[in-house]
Amino acid sequence: MFESLIRFVREQYRTNEFIPLHAPVFNGRERDCVIDTIDTTFVSSVGAYVDRFERDVATYTGSARAIATVNGTAALHVALRLAGVQAGDLVLTQPLTFVATCNAIAYGGAEPVFIDVDRGTLGLSPIALEAWLSERAFIDDAGCCRLKAGLRPIRVCLPVHTFGHPADLDGLLGVCQRWNLFLIEDAAAAVGSFYKGRHTGTFGRLGVLSFNGNKIITTGGGGMLLADDALGTRAKHLTTTAKQPHPYEYIHDELGYNYRLPNLNAALGCAQLEQLERFISQKRKLAARYATELNGSALQFVTEPMGCRSNYWLNAVLCEDRMQREALLTATNAAGVMTRPAWQLMNRLPMYHDCLRGALDNAEWLEARVVNLPSSVLPDGLV
Ligand SMILES: *Cc1c(COP(=O)(O)O)cnc(C)c1O
Q1: Protein residue whose Cα sits closest to atom 15 of ligand 1
Q2: Which of these, 104, 118, 239, 327, could form a disulfide with 125 (CB 3.0-4.6 Å)?
Q3: pLDDT for residue 382 is more than 70
């Protein structure tokens, strides 16, 4: 089974070797930029590449500010703190995500609430969100959204642009406005994905990007906070140990973090960012070929939502049922073509098992059917 799909993937990458899900590609100035940090000795927390990487990402995304961090999880942690989330708060998010989304919530003593996703976008459903809030929450006299039972504050909504496909941002912005919620976008996987012409991560008050090794461009490990001027200044302060500028004294005026991206990593990021648009055009070509190849087959290829330009970070198909999913995963991995199921839903993990949740029909439906296919940028010359 699935021999033709396996043959098709091998034809794309022109190799009989193991084909990974997503491998980084270093065809640009990466080597020169990284060596430059060694030659100048500026490998660590100070250096010109960090400033340049932040400036370049801000320009590319259209964000007022971009603050580099050691990884995407750290950026999420700081974003939640900037949003005023406190221990005991509830944070609205989706169960279909990488565990980092929920871990960042839990680090500050808050708890995720799991709301269903849309089958079309794979992202948080504004309809499910509105329905859950109408049933379970109210807005108090001070304007704070609270759970009716127990009055716990609900300050933040944290949707995810799953596999790089933009969520329904217009719908989510509407719900957040009605319920006085602070929107943070987990755009970790969505670098280069645009919703109605604007970069994902710039619709909420804060947005988070990741440059981990498996993402569309990488700094080895790294992340970025997208923010306005005021929150950007606060973010920079918190991620650099909350140190006040002074000619010689060490003055730290609040609890800060050592979350700043090293210059060594930023150098890699600068060189990768120069190639992002080329990577995306190659990945979109690959996605179009998958779509054509699978047209009329039992596997339904997941395409970008209307009005969006997705980066197609991870290509995905929907199987007919869980049995077919197992068969596809078994056959492809046995043949050296790496495929993976979607993440186990967060509400199944022991640490999030008892969290509040709405009906999760779509998330469960997707969990049983989604398989990610090899999605690396095609080697030069094979496009
Ligand atoms: C990769 C990822 C993260 C975490 O980013 P790191 O840089 O690996 O810490 C968070 N959320 C989602 C949806 C991701 O895909």
Answers
A1: 189
A2: 118
A3: no
